[in-house]
UniProtKB/TrEMBL annotation:
Organismal lineage: Eukaryota, Fungi, Dikarya, Ascomycota, Pezizomycotina
Coiled coil location: 90-117
Organism: Macrophomina phaseolina (strain MS6)
Protein name (Swiss-Prot/TrEMBL): Zn(2)-C6 fungal-type domain-containing protein
Segments of this protein annotated with the region Disordered: 1-31
GO MF annotations in UniProt: DNA binding; DNA-binding transcription factor activity, RNA polymerase II-specific; zinc ion binding
Gene Ontology, cellular component aspect: nucleus
PANTHER family: HALOTOLERANCE PROTEIN 9-RELATED, TRANSCRIPTION FACTOR PDR1
Domain Zn(2)-C6 fungal-type: 67-90
Gene3D superfamilies found in the cross-reference section: Zn(2)-C6 fungal-type DNA-binding domain
Pfam families (UniProt xref): Zn_clus (PF00172)
CDD domains per the UniProt record, alphabetical: fungal_TF_MHR, GAL4
Length: 715
């Protein structure tokens, strides 16, 4: 028997004539492709699970695409298949963004109604307030109750919601378009004012860009103007309205501001780099009206810049090189505003705004003078921010003081010789160039004074616990203190020359704050000398006259600006005290500062002092004046105090979380950061300023800003 087994089956027997074909393999079911229609808004469950989790048994059996949300109401296909509860947070027929904006509008309306109800409760009598309170408790809807409420005659004078806080639904966009169409000449004037007043110091829109926007406005189809163009137009007209209130009334400027705020959200989505420019102009509008929401717009602009990659050194592939360079320059303007405003208002910042090397231009070039000055302004602003960050620790070391003084001196030494302070005091220069260079030096001198004021605040803090330690600290910092007072002298000289040249703008925060602080420092120095010098007021004479020059600039600004008027009221008693002392001495005339002295070669280093500049002990009127002026010099830093039970400070004027009600858009606040406000601006446990610094307000419209103005002229 053969043990070999055949490896293959035996061939079929040809005699049988029957062939058996092997069975075919089972056919695979064809994959069924089901096209999915666009879903307007998915339900919450599907959005949370990315709408890709279907029934595994169904998928395995039929090889179909996993069930996805089809937007069906009341239950979508996926939730019905898996047996889950289907919940929508978007109304039928609405998109997610549209629904979010409607919710923001509803919150705005409810907030306005709540403020109106609160006003009625405060304004009415006890009986009326009690009656209104009972109706409020039973009212199902607050806005409808207030709209149907019959007011007593005493309540009919209820003021409307300020325009800067109006709900978005009340922004009259058709009215804005009609005004633009019917007032083409005023719009051209506004664009011309913008180019004259802002381009030299802040890079936002170039003249060519502004001309391009203006060309679109002047077309017959202005009523069909795209939203982004309208937003940019309104922001330019809003800032320009502050420079010619006779031809562009404040009500128009306020309307344009509200319209730009209303349209900014869409501009962020469509053209984020252009939205940064609008943020910059909104900042300037709020700086003029002295509203701290300007700081929020700074953070919004910086947040968009971070999301667009402007903080890196390389141009992103999706942005062309020219747009990249232009956006870097706008970013530099935001950093300038951030350091400058935070340092003057005392708003702490946990981290500095970063700039790439692209924002720094090369050496001074006459053909690009504006870029040079903008860059130098920004460098000074960054040094100011460095001084402000020292408030993280109430004590100030000598090494820190020396480091900041070295930075300031290095900046000055790097200036071209023809732009030095001594060269700028002569009148043989081009008037516009002299004014611009003067502002540059005023900002630099203000930074020296900021360091002096920071030392004063440190002395105030230390003197509450150990007066000997405080005296030792300020004696070690004598040179920096003397430099601060000398910087006040030079600032007063520059401001007086600017006033004579027509370079002072009444609403300019640089002019207002610098004249106020210079006057404070010079008055303190004058009264300090009156206590310690037996030959006072014969020597020195300059501080007396220069304090009067600084006060004159402040009074000039006070005719328009409410914060300047508040500063003037604060310093008036000390100026009267000085005048009375000089009148009693019979030497008032000799205290005047001549024009020749203002233009003479300045001494860049302070004269030596026999007594350190800290408040002397005593009860005379001069001693009391010194103590109060010393306290004014320490503001706003003297408001900082160590928190109980820890080393971290309780920062009074810490910058707030972005104010959604004022900004007017709430859907895309993730532009500020990765889904949350930037870490550089959000304090711990703070929602707003606990105290508005120096008379600023959270929001202030143009009409409110001009309530007590004696004139509408800015110069």
């Amino acid at each position: 028997m053969n043990s070999d087994r055949p490896l293959l089956p035996a061939p079929p027997d040809p005699r049988s004539r029957k062939f058996h074909r092997p069975p075919l393999p089972p056919a695979r079911p064809l994959r069924q492709r089901i096209s999915r229609s666009l879903t307007l808004a998915a339900c919450l469950i599907c959005r949370h699970k990315k709408t890709k989790v279907g029934d595994s048994s169904i998928c395995a059996a039929s090889f179909v695409t996993p069930i996805q949300c089809d937007g069906a109401r009341p239950t979508c296909a996926r939730c019905k298949a898996v047996g889950e509860k289907c919940v929508y947070d978007v109304g039928q027929g609405e998109r997610k963004a549209e629904s979010a904006k409607n919710r923001v509008d509803s919150v705005e309306r409810d907030f306005a109604s709540a403020m109106q109800a609160l006003h009625l409760l405060h304004r009415g009598s006890d009986k009326e307030a009690e009656h209104l309170y009972r109706r409020l408790r039973l009212a199902p809807d607050l806005p409808s109750l207030l709209s149907n409420l019959t007011l007593a005659p005493s309540e009919t004078a209820l003021p409307p919601v300020p325009p800067a806080q109006q709900p978005l639904a009340q922004v009259d966009i058709p009215g804005v378009l009609r005004y633009i169409h019917d007032n083409q000449e005023k719009i051209r004037r506004a664009f011309s004012l913008y180019a004259e007043r802002t381009i030299n110091l802040f890079h936002v829109y170039t003249e060519d860009e502004a001309a391009g926007i203006l060309a679109q406005i002047c077309e017959p189809s202005v009523y069909n103007m795209p939203g982004p163009v309208l937003c940019e137009t309104c922001s330019i007209v809003a800032i320009a309205s502050h420079f010619d209130r006779h031809r562009i009334p404040p009500s128009v400027g306020e309307l344009m501001y509200n319209a730009a705020k209303h349209l900014l959200d869409d501009l962020v989505l469509q053209k984020p780099l252009r939205a940064i420019k609008v943020c910059a102009l909104m900042i300037l509008c709020n700086v003029i009206t002295k509203a701290t929401v300007a700081l929020t717009y700074i953070d919004v602009g910086l947040g968009i810049a971070r999301r667009q990659g402007l903080s890196s050194k390389k141009c992103p592939p999706n942005v062309d090189q020219d747009s990249w360079i232009d956006a870097q320059k706008v970013l530099r303007s935001l950093v300038l505003c951030k350091g400058w405003l935070e340092s003057t208002l005392g708003c702490s910042s946990d981290e500095p705004a970063l700039l790439s090397d692209a924002v720094y231009t090369g050496a001074y070039d006459v053909l690009d003078a504006a870029e040079f000055f903008r860059t130098e302004f920004t460098k000074i602003s960054i040094i100011k921010a460095k001084i402000l960050r020292t408030t993280a620790n109430p004590n100030l070391s000598q090494n820190t003081i020396d480091s900041i003084r070295a930075d300031l001196q290095s900046w000055y030494n790097a200036l071209p010789v023809k732009l030095r302070l001594s060269e700028n005091l002569h009148r043989d220069k081009d008037p516009q160039t002299r004014i611009t260079v003067s502002y540059l030096h005023v900002l630099h001198l203000g930074t020296i004074m900021l360091l002096h004021r920071r030392i004063v605040s440190c002395y105030v803090h230390l003197s509450t616990g150990d007066s000997d330690c405080a005296r030792i600290m300020i004696q070690e910092a004598t040179q920096a203190v003397d430099e601060g007072v000398h910087a006040a002298r030079l600032s007063a000289r520059l401001l007086a020359l600017l006033l004579d040249d027509g370079g002072i703008t009444r609403h300019c925060w640089i002019c207002i704050f610098q004249s106020y602080m210079s006057c404070c420092a010079l008055l303190f120095s004058t009264f300090h000398d009156a206590i310690h010098r037996p030959d006072w007021p014969l020597q020195p004479r300059s501080d007396i006259g220069l304090s009067e020059k600084a006060f004159k600039v402040l009074s000039f600004c006070a005719k328009l600006d409410p914060v300047a008027a508040s500063f003037e009221r604060t310093l008036s008693p000390y100026m009267r005290l000085l005048q009375d002392a000089l009148k009693a001495d019979g030497s008032k005339k000799s205290a005047d500062v001549s024009a020749a002295f203002l233009e003479s070669e300045p001494a860049l280093s302070p004269p030596p002092r026999s007594q350190p500049l800290f408040p002397p002990n005593g009860s005379t009127v001069f001693h009391q004046a010194c103590a109060m002026l010393f306290k004014l010099l320490s503001e706003p830093f003297s408001s900082y105090a160590p928190a109980a039970g820890g080393n971290k400070q309780n920062k009074l004027n810490e910058q707030a979380t972005p104010n959604i009600d004022e900004l007017g858009f709430g859907m895309h606040m993730d532009w500020i950061g990765a889904g949350q406000p930037s870490s550089s601006s959000v304090p711990e446990g703070m929602a707003s300023f606990e105290k508005q610094p120096f008379g600023w307000r959270l929001v202030r419209g143009s009409t409110e800003y001009l309530e007590a103005a004696q004139t509408l002229d800015i110069s």
